Amino acid sequence: MVTQITRGIKISVLTSFEGTYFKNYKIHFAFSYKITIENHSKDSVQLMSRHWEIFDALNNLELVDGEGVVGKKPVLKPGESHTYSSGCLLSSPFGAMRGYFNMINFTSTRSFRVIVPSFKLSAPFALN
């Protein structure tokens, strides 16, 4: 598990290999990830949007930006957490993701960025 704390917001990431799939006559490697966002700050916050950089071993880069996470913009009071699962397809059995969440602090009404640390995506059959 990979974890990081930014301005009192703890991000934890757990990944899993889900299998291989053929799409558009090409093999793809499917990965899932579970992210837990914990509010260790003194203020209520809301996740507004996300930014991902998804890399594979073939040097391909995919950028993903969007509102919320899996259709939600969770509000976290101090001590609360939110967990969600999502996934991605890679063209190789190895890769990585990193990114950030744009959040709003309800006390100060200021936006801030919470870093999602780089986490590896790897198919177990490809490991030595």
Automatic annotation (TrEMBL):
GO terms classed as biological process: error-free translesion synthesis
- TM region positions: none
Annotated InterPro entries: ApaG_domain, ApaG_sf
Question: Pfam families per the record?
Answer: DUF525
Q: Which domain of life is it from?
A: Bacteria
Q: Which PROSITE patterns match?
A: APAG
According to the entry, every stretch annotated as the ApaG domain falls at: 3-128
Coiled coil (residue ranges): none
Q: In its UniProt entry, what is this protein called?
A: Co2+/Mg2+ efflux protein ApaG
Species: Flavobacterium macacae
